[in-house]
Amino acid sequence: QVQLQESGPGLVKPSQTLSLTCTVSGGSISSGSYYWSWIRQPAGKGLEWIGRIYTSGSTNYNPSLKSRVTISVDTSKNQFSLKLSSVTAADTAVYYCARLQADRFDPWGQGTLVTVSS
Amino acid sequence: SYVLTQPPSVSVAPGQTARITCGGNNIGSKSVHWYQQKPGQAPVLVVYDDSDRPSGIPERFSGSNSGNTATLTISRVEAGDEADYYCQVWDSSSDQGVFGGGTKLTVL
Which residues of B are less than 8 Å from A69 in CB distance? Predict the structure, then answer.
């Protein structure tokens, strides 16, 4: 079955750009009518949807983050990526990637903690 | 934007039935999905499209959705059900995913 794995730096300095990659295994990122999404969760808090991308490159973003977020896809590597610019301590969170099947998220990656600190 | 409201916590004794609500304006017109998240783990889909279960999810987990409230029901609650539960919908008017604030289920 499809599995997702996040990777990227665990520590980012304030004002810099957070960059994460999600690698999809067990199936092609291009097969089926799926979107691919990023979701984050600050420690002790709830889930926040960041955005989604289709393999055509079509994207939608959370309006609260839209000015700072870019999601891209590399079908040749079976990966999609997140870039979040001008980060602050408020962006410290566990970041998850997930497949968006119809309008539900399944499966999810295990998550990766990103800390914004100097 | 669309808002989903969940109670912060629900407590239930083992063997009893837990009901976790998710409120939203005319939520009955949307498909509601529920996730279970145990400490240190990623969320897992336990109910989708209001009341369907993914393979591998026990029949004890069920859902309903009508009017302004969706409900996740866990029958014959076990200690292993203790977790945070999140409801989620897709807001087609703004084309974005929306999560409820989460409910911590405590098994007494």
Answer: none
Residues of B in contact with A103 (CB under 8 A): 31, 33, 89-90, 97
Query: Which residues are paired to A89 by β-bridges?
Result: none
- Structure-block tokens of residue B108: 């007494």
Contact B43 A47 (CB under 8 A): yes
A90 DSSP 8-state letter: G
The amino acid present at B106, given as its one-letter code, is: T
Which residues of chain B lie closer than 8 angstroms to A111, CB-CB?
42
Relative to beta strand B9-12, strand B103-107 is parallel
- Decide if pLDDT at A32 tops 90: no
Q: By the 8 A CB rule, do B4 and B35 touch?
A: no
Q: Measure CB to CB from residue B31 to each of A39, A103, A106 and give the nearest one.
A: A103
Residue A31: its pLDDT value, please? 87
- Model confidence at A89, pLDDT cuts 50, 70, 90, reads very high
8 Å CB contact of B99 and A37: no
Task: Report which of B91, B101, B83 is spatially closest to residue B42, judged by C-alpha positions.
Answer: B83
Share of chain B above pLDDT 90, in %: 99
Q: Does the pLDDT of residue A33 top 90, yes or no?
A: no
Which of A:40-79 have CB within 8 Å of B?
46-49, 52, 60-63
Q: Which tens digit of pLDDT belongs to each residue from B17-34?
A: 999 999 999 999 999 999
